[in-house]
Amino acid sequence: MKKLFLFLLCAVLLCAGLCGCKPAANPASDFEYRVSDSYGDAGGVLIQKYVGTATTVVIPEKIEGKPVFNIDIMAFANTNIEKVVIPDTVINIADMAFKNCPALKEVVFGSGLQIICRQAFMNCPSLQEAILPSSLRTLNYEAFSLCTSLKKVRLPKSLTLLGSAAFLLCPVEELILEDGITMFGSSYAFSGSKFKTLTIPASVQTIGSESFIVYAGELEQVFFEGDAPLSVGKEPFGTKAVVIYYKAGTNGWEDTPLRDQYTLIAQ
User: Fold this and answer.
1) Cα separation of 182 and 56, whole Å?
2) For 27-266, CATH number?
3) Is it the case that residue 17 has pLDDT exceeding 60?
4) How far apart are CA 172 and CA 123, in angstroms?
5) Which alpha helices (DSSP H) does the chain contain, by range?
6) If pLDDT is split at 50, 70 and 90, which confidence band does 3 have?
7) How confident is the model at residue 16 (pLDDT cuts 50, 70, 90)?
8) Nearest 5°: CA angle at 229, between 227 and 234?
9) 85 - beta bridge partners?
10) What is the distance of C-alpha 191 from the center of its chain?
11) CB 197 within 8 A of CB 223
12) Predicted confidence (pLDDT) per residue in 112-149, tens digit
C-alpha cells in the first residue's frame, strides 16, 4: 500500500509539472500595498513596495480578495530580484517600478497588461528578453533603456504608443514586430541595437522619426511585407546607407518619403 501511495504521489507531481501549473505566489506580507476603490466595483490592490527577501517573485493575483491591478512607482526599484512573474490582473506598471534592478534576468508579463510607464525597467543590466504581451497598448519613454544585456524584443500588434528612447543603448539582436501592429518607431527608440536586418509587417501604417539616429547600430537592410507606410518620419532608420526592400506589386513606393532618404529596391 505504501509503495502504491508513493507511486501515485510521484505520478501526480509529474503530471503537475507537465501541465505547467502556476508557481505559488509570494505571500501578501512580502508587499506593502493599499486597496483602491477606483478599480472596478469592489476595488483593487496597488503594490507599493516589495519588502520580501526572495529573489524570485510571483506577484499574487489577489490580496484580501481583491485583484492586484497596479504596480506602483518604484515598487521594486533597487532590489536584488532575479525573476518576477506578473499576474494577468495587472494592467499598469508605473514609473520606475523596476528601475535599477541589477540582478533581474527574467520578467514574465501577464496577459492583461496595458501600460508600461516611463523608465519602468530602466537600467536592468541582466535582463535578456522583453516578450511583451498582446494586450499592451502603451510603452512609454525610456521604458527599457540601458538594459545592456537585452537581446530579444517582441512588440505586439496591440501597441499604439512607443515612447522615445524606449530601448536606448540596448544591444537588441532580434526585434519581432507582431503581424497586425500598425505603428513602429520613435526618437532613439532602438539606438544602440545590434540587428542587421528588420522585417516590417504589412500592417504597419506609421513609422516614427529617428528610431536609430544616435548610436545607429548595425542596421543594414529593411524588408517591407506590404504597401508603403502612409506616414513616415524623418530618417526613421538612421542616417546610415540602409537599403529598403519591398515586394513588387505593392503600392505607394513611387512617392514615399522613404525614397528621398534611402535606397529602395523592388523584389
Assistant:
1) 35
2) 3.80.10.10
3) no
4) 14
5) 2-18, 258-261
6) low
7) very low
8) 145
9) 58, 108
10) 16
11) yes
12) 999 999 999 999 999 999 999 999 999 999 999 999 99
Helix, strand, or coil (residue 51): coil
Element (H, E) at 267: none
Half-sphere exposure (CA, 13 Å, Cβ side) for 195?
18
Cell of 44: 483593487
Coil vs helix vs strand at 13? helix
Q: Enumerate the domain spans of the chain.
A: 27-266
Distance separating alpha carbons of residues 166 and 159, to the nearest angstrom: 13
**Sequence-separated (6 or more) residues with CB below 8 Å from residue 260:** none
Distance separating the N- and C-terminal Cα atoms of the chain: 71
pTM: 0.88
Write the single-letter amino acid at 14: L
pLDDT band at 5 (very low <50, low <70, confident <90, very high): very low
